[in-house]
Specification:
Length: about 325
């Protein structure tokens, strides 16, 4: 049986599926979960939508987002007997490892993803690494089983595509991504809503933070890498939280003439997060994996212990 039909069989056989987005959710993991949820609604399958972290207010426009819960106990009370995970390279990323193990129902796990570093942790793995987004994977699944895609599902799928292609501008923008974008617009996907809520949404504080990041940009000839760094003090000075760095690396990748870009930022709890982008035939996921992270060839990230310090004009993790 084709993997699409295996995944569908798990959904149809399940009494109560649990759909899961990864933590620090983005438009792709949420869009994938919500589009799949739309399909379950269409076949009359009661289900739960879960994300360990509350989706940011910017995602409130996504149809069905109001049904997403973040309470583990509540999710457990609904006794899910199948778990569908979207856009997470491993169960840890979805904060589901222990949760799934602890469920008395011993659920089947279905994994929808497009990350090359995916560990194939599911009982069914719908893993398509040439897809631009997990929502493209979900779309291929829905098309493959002959499901109808309504307007709301089209908006959710388009949101993931926009997120992971940086609005059809980064190297993930494949021919199939552009074709799918056109198809979703024709199906009623609300592209202008997505742009308004996820792009044209930066406050003065956020752009001041970006200003600091731009001022600190340095180029290393040996590694052919542009690097910048943001500290917790920078977030405080600009009156924004650490999450506000989302988008800086994508913005730099869209406009900066450098083969590789690394944005380092301090996070609460003595952590430093690194965000890597490349526009060339390099594989930044290898560097990210070496540092305990993961991602795609062209966009990857990692988290390490430490803090940032400027030493002789360059930023170091100490
Ligand atoms: Mn993705």
């Amino acid at each position: 049986m084709h993997v699409f039909h295996q995944a569908d069989a798990v959904a149809r056989a399940s009494r109560h599926p649990l759909l899961v987005s990864h933590r620090n959710p983005d438009g792709d993991t949420l869009g994938g979960m919500l589009a799949f949820g739309g399909y379950l609604d269409a076949i009359g399958k009661e289900h739960t939508r879960f994300c360990a972290d509350r989706p940011g207010p910017g995602y409130a426009f996504l149809p069905g987002i109001e049904r997403v819960i973040s309470d583990f106990d509540e999710a457990q009370r609904r006794e899910p007997d199948a778990v569908f995970v979207f856009d997470a390279g491993d169960l840890k990323h979805a904060v589901m490892e222990e949760f799934v193990r602890a469920l008395p129902t011993k659920p089947s796990v279905v994994n929808f993803d497009h990350h090359a570093s995916n560990t194939r942790y599911g009982d069914v793995n719908v893993l398509i690494t040439d897809a631009a987004s997990t929502t493209e994977v979900v779309h291929r699944f829905l098309s493959g089983i002959g499901a109808r895609i309504n307007r709301d599902m089209a908006t959710c799928i388009l949101t993931g595509l926009c997120t992971d292609t940086s609005n059809f501008s980064n190297p993930a923008t494949s021919a199939s991504a552009l074709r799918l974008g056109a198809e979703l617009l024709a199906a009623g996907g609300k592209f202008s809503d997505i742009q308004r809520h996820l792009v044209k949404n930066k406050s003065v504080g956020i752009l001041r933070l970006w200003g600091i990041a731009l001022e600190r940009l340095r180029y290393n000839n040996t590694h052919q890498m542009a690097t910048t760094a943001l500290t917790i003090k920078d977030f405080e000075d600009c009156g924004v939280d650490e999450e506000s760095t989302e988008g800086i690396s994508n913005f730099l990748a869209a406009v900066l003439d450098a083969p590789t870009i690394m944005v380092l930022r301090e996070a609460p709890g003595g952590l430093v997060r690194g965000s890597l982008r490349t526009v060339e035939e390099r594989d930044v996921s290898k560097l990210a994996v070496a540092l305990g992270g993961g991602g795609h060839k062209k966009a990857a990230g990692f988290t390490v212990r430490g803090r940032l310090a400027e030493v002789d004009g360059t930023w170091k993790i100490i």
